[in-house]
Amino acid sequence: MTARPLLAAGRVVVTEPYLTLQEAKDQLDISHDARDAFIQAKITAASAIVIGYLNFNLPDTPWTAATIPEDIKTATLLVVADLYAERGTTEGREDRPSLSTRVQWLLSPWVVLTVA
Question: Whose CA is closest to 68, among 27, 107, 116, 21?
């Protein structure tokens, strides 16, 4: 599978997919193959959401699957689970749902707070 590099602040941050389908299925406690394409789409979306959320000190060289920090990978797995669980309508909800407190906590070391 060829994936686009993930960008933050206009720079490449991750050069390749950093979650496998099996890791996501383990997180979701799914052992069958019937939803693989759907889960893969959630991996792609969750990865973009997490990297897009970060406003951080960028790494000198882009991360790979082997070098991405574990807390970012774990946060992405949690977002995959959230996207999988909330796969229906968002009617009556905010246009842009916020990340869970657990995800924000995992990502907090990478976020640079700015004052406007």
Answer: 107
Crossing angle of helices 70-85/21-28, nearest 10°?
A: 60
Residue 107, C-beta contacts closer than 8 angstroms, at least 6 positions apart = 50, 53, 54, 71, 72, 75, 99
Question: What's the predicted TM-score (pTM) here?
Answer: 0.82
The amino acid at residue 54 is: L
Q: Beta strands of 1-116 (E only): which ranges?
A: 6-8, 11-14
Of 94, 98, 66, residue with least CA distance to 79: 98
81-104 pLDDT, tens digit per residue, is: 999 988 765 555 555 567 899 999
What does residue 63 show for φ and ψ, rounded to 5 degrees? -75, 155
Domain spans in the chain, listed from the N-terminal domain onward: 6-110
Q: What is the predicted pLDDT for the residue at 28? A: 95
Residue 69 tokens, joined: 């920090």
* CATH number for the domain formed by residue range(s) 6-110: 1.10.3230.30
